[in-house]
Amino acid sequence: MKNLRKYIISVVIGLFTTLGVLLLKNTFIQKDILQFYSDLTDAFFIPGVFFISFGLLILATNEHIFDTVTYGVHAVFNAFRKRENRKLKRSYIEYRQHREENGKVSFLYLINVGLLFVAISIVFLLLFNSKYYG
Question: Is residue 15 within 8 Å of residue 51, measured between CB atoms?
Answer without folding.
Answer: no
